């Protein structure tokens, strides 16, 4: 469950204020936010992730108003409740695939079970890459690892920033399918922001900025 | 998975940076610690070798030469002094201990010193086996001499004229080993001690052969090379040297004063090496700083990712600081090992040129100061690399990546 109320953001170095429409998603509901670059899609996503502070308004995730949390509590909340997927960079470069998942859980202060991790990689089709460094993976494999890192700690909210923009059609379809399956499996809200029109059909709720 | 594992993977992932940092830092640490220890060991060695000798009286000439030859036994003597005159000097109530020494001969490069039993108390010398020399042509030898030349009690040897091994003319008279000193790490280890009479006898005998018909020669006044003195109170040190220098044709030299003068010269070299080591230390600090700083910049996305994983700023700072600390600890260990290895090497060389074992001295206090200084300088470098972390704009880093 996630809701936002009269959310605005002011850029530090300018006087312009961005105002965002109110969001209201029930449990496990997903949302696609479409918009051209520069309209503040990523800003909205980072506000929802608690990486930016709003000028006004509230964001409530799973009954917690994250705009009132201290920096430290916000770090911990983000680690536990939110998973993020990015366009290109997805994992820590000095670690292997499996170590990345372990590190992800370590930072969230959760214990890791190797079998469960390998099973997750298996579902995402990259179990055979578990001991590879991230620079040995293809773009499609990297994006699957990105999904694994976003869901391994069973978050309540998955935020994806242009997850398909670098992918070809085949990978695009597959990645979106996996992302939605994982969100459903975790009963998590999925919010995807993109300018990629290919994935429009995957969503019931579409918001244009 | 834990912080250490992440730190170690990060270090392994940039082997060149890690190697360069550890390399330059450990070299500078090795130089700093090595020079410190070498300086302390050599000074200690010299000071130790002085024993309780407060003053040395010899023929006029360079006071440093007199100290080097008669106390440290490394240089040639300044000349001889008259034995009766020297004995006259010892009738001073302020004098605690006096030993005339006489030399000019060697056996296979080890100096033969003719003296009286008083000599032993200057160095708190103890005899390991055998006795002190009582009769002429009896000798007690230092532990190093015994070991290197394989001499044992009862062995005999012939001395050669001069102070170095190259001397050709060998005397006919044979010395007999009656005692061996305990190892002392002092100059005593490489000396052959005998009675004054032995030296006179050896030379009289030779001269007798050379000048068989010059009977008068035998009645010449006895001579010694120098006289070692120690005083009951510092008052003796204040008055006696002046008296000797002004009223006799001999000179008095203060070994401690002369050595301090010598160290002022050698200190310049030590100082130069220290400065080089400090410069390398600063360079390696800059290397570590740049390495960590670049890591913070280049890996900004990795660090931002960790923040989205729930890691606090403190956690990320800890990871980066630990990377630096790993390098420092590793360098300290390698640097210390290198310094010990280097010292061992230098001591081996010194040993063969001085013919003497040097006791390695660890000046604990200055050692600790140096280590603390190194740590402080490097921790400042690490702290400077971490500061930008707290100003990091995660949102900007994540969105710039597209």
Task: Please give a structural write-up.
Chain A: Pfam families: ABC_tran. The complex is a heterodimer of chains A (209) and B (402). Chain A is α/β, with parallel strands linked by helices. In chain A, 33% of the residues lie in helices and 22% in strands. In chain A, strands 1, 2, 3, 5 and 6 form a five-stranded antiparallel sheet that branches. The mean pLDDT of chain A is 89. With 402 residues, chain B is an alpha+beta fold. Chain B is built from 13 helices and twelve strands. In chain B, the strands form two sheets. In chain B, strands 3-4-9-6-8-7 form a six-stranded mixed barrel. Chain B is elongated, with a radius of gyration of 31 Å. At the A-B interface, helix 1, helix 2 and helix 3 of A face helix 1, helix 10 and helix 13 of B.
Which tags fit this structure?
heterodimer, A: 209 residues, alpha/beta, 5-stranded antiparallel β-sheet, 5-stranded parallel β-sheet, B: 402 residues, alpha+beta, 2 domains, 6-stranded mixed beta barrel, 13 helices, 17% strand
Integer count of domains of chain A: 1
Alpha-beta content class of chain B: alpha+beta
How much of the residues of chain A is beta strand, in percent?
A: 15-25%
Side-by-side strand order of the widest sheet of chain B: 3-4-9-6-8-7
Number of strands of chain B: 12
Report, as a whole number of angstroms, the end-to-end distance of chain A. Answer: 21 Å
Largest sheet geometry of chain A: 5 strands, antiparallel
First-residue to last-residue Cα separation of chain B: 29 Å
**Arithmetic mean pLDDT of chain B:** 83
């Amino acid at each position: 469950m996630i809701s936002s109320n009269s959310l605005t953001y002011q850029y530090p170095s300018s006087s312009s204020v961005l105002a965002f429409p109110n969001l209201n998603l029930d449990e496990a509901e997903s949302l696609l936010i479409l918009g051209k670059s520069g309209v503040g899609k990523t800003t909205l996503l980072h506000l929802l992730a608690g990486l930016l502070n709003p000028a006004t308004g509230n964001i409530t995730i799973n009954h917690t108003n994250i705009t009132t949390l201290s920096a430290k509590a916000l770090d911990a909340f983000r680690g536990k409740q939110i998973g993020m997927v990015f366009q290109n960079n997805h994992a820590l470069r000095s670690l292997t695939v499996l170590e990345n998942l372990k590190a992800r859980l370590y930072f969230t202060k959760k214990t890791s079970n190797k079998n469960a991790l390998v099973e997750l990689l298996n579902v995402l089709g990259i179990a055979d890459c578990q001991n590879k460094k991230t620079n040995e993976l293809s773009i499609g494999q990297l994006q699957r690892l990105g999904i694994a890192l976003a869901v391994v700690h069973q978050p309540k909210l998955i935020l994806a920033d242009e997850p398909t923009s670098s992918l070809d059609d085949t990978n695009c379809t597959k990645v979106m399918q996996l992302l939605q399956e994982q969100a459903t499996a975790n009963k998590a809200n999925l919010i995807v922001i993109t300018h990629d029109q290919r994935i429009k059909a995957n969503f019931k709720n579409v918001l244009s900025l | 998975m834990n912080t250490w594992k992440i730190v170690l993977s990060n270090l392994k992932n940039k082997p060149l940076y890690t190697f360069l940092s550890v390399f330059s830092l450990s070299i500078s640490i090795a130089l700093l610690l090595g020079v410190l220890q070498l300086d302390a060991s050599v000074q200690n060695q010299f000071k130790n070798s002085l024993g309780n000798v407060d003053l040395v009286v010899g023929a006029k000439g360079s006071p440093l030469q007199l100290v080097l030859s008669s106390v440290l036994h490394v240089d040639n003597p300044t000349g001889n002094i008259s034995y009766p005159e020297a004995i006259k000097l010892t009738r001073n109530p302020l004098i605690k201990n006096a030993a005339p020494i006489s030399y000019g001969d060697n056996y296979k490069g080890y100096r033969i010193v003719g003296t009286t039993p008083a000599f032993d108390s200057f160095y708190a010398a103890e005899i390991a086996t055998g006795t002190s020399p009582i009769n002429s042509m009896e000798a007690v030898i230092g532990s190093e001499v015994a070991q290197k030349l394989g001499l044992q009690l009862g062995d005999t040897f012939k001395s050669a004229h001069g102070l170095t091994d190259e001397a050709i003319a060998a005397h006919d008279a044979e010395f007999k080993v009656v005692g061996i000193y305990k190892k002392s790490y002092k100059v005593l280890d490489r000396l052959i001690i005998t009675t004054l009479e032995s030296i006179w006898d050896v030379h009289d005998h030779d001269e007798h052969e050379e000048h068989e018909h010059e009977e008068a020669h035998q009645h010449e006044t006895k001579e010694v090379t120098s006289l070692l003195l120690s005083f009951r109170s510092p008052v003796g040190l204040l008055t006696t040297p002046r008296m000797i220098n002004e009223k006799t044709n001999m000179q008095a030299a203060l070994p401690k004063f002369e050595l301090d003068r010598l160290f002022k010269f050698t200190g310049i070299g030590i100082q130069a090496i220290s400065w080089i080591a400090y410069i390398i230390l600063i360079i390696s600090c800059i290397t570590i700083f740049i390495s960590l700083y670049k890591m913070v910049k280049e890996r900004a996305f990795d660090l931002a990712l960790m923040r989205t994983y729930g890691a606090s700023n403190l956690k990320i700072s800890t990871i980066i600081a630990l990377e630096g600390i790993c390098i420092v600890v590793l360098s300290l260990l390698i640097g210390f090992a290198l310094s010990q290895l280097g010292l061992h090497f230098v001591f081996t060389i010194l040993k063969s040129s001085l013919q003497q074992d040097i006791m390695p001295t660890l000046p604990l206090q200055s050692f600790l100061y140096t280590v603390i200084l190194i740590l402080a300088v490097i921790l400042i470098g690490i702290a400077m690399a971490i500061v930008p972390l707290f100003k990091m704009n995660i949102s900007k880093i994540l969105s710039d990546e597209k």
